[in-house]
Specification:
Helices cover 32% and strands 17% of the residues. The strands form 2 sheets. Strands 1-9-2-3-8 form a 5-stranded mixed β-sheet, with helices on both faces. A 4-stranded mixed β-sheet has the order 5-6-4-7. 44% of the residues are buried.
Length: 186
């Protein structure tokens, strides 16, 4: 695994581009989001990327993979125009924690939807995650960077220790801002 340390306030564009290249070519990239670290892969590449994410996590294929996008426009290009209600929600809550459940496009890898015909998509409130999705040019997977059944993490060291053998690239910005709450020192 290649690990690149990035200043979260001024990320290097070459690091964002390298992450996007890994994703476009079937790789798995661990990226920071507004909550925890996520595994980013191309959700339209069933044979390489999506299969690798399920194998890396030990995730049952019946569990859908959530997606993130750079913005609402990217969601509409990849899926279709949002309904009036979904558009209102997106304008009000994106970027942010709102996940919209949308009809899955036929080009999306079947395992991404877990047999539901729908896919959850959100626009995170994290400029690096959005920049990676923008550089890829399509929404990307954003399932938590952990083995299924284990707790998700906000710590890139944990990502490397637990998934370093299966992740191709780790975009390390330090602990994520919205990770698990730490006990107070008081």
């Amino acid at each position: 695994m290649r690990r690149v340390f990035v200043d979260p306030l001024a990320p290097q564009s070459d690091a964002i581009q390298e992450a996007a290249t890994w994703i476009r070519t079937g790789g798995i990239v661990a990226i920071p989001t507004d909550t925890l670290y996520g595994l980013a892969a191309n959700p339209f590449d069933a044979k390489a990327a999506v299969a690798r994410v399920f194998a890396a996590k030990g995730r049952p294929q019946s569990q859908a993979l959530p997606l993130i996008a750079a913005d609402a426009a990217q969601v509409e290009v990849a899926h279709r125009p949002l309904s009036a209600a979904a558009g209102r929600l997106a304008r009000r809550f994106w970027p942010g924690p709102l996940t919209l459940l949308l009809p899955a496009p036929v080009t999306l890898a079947r395992d991404v939807v877990g047999g539901t015909g729908r896919v959850g998509v959100r626009v995170p409130a994290h400029h690096i995650a959005c920049a990676v999705a923008a550089s890829v040019g399509t929404p990307i997977t954003a399932t938590s960077a952990n083995v299924s059944g284990e707790p998700p993490t906000d710590d890139p060291d944990v990502v490397e220790r637990t998934l370093g053998r299966v992740v191709d690239f780790l975009l390390d910005t330090g602990p994520t801002p919205g990770g698990r709450r730490r006990p107070s020192s008081m």
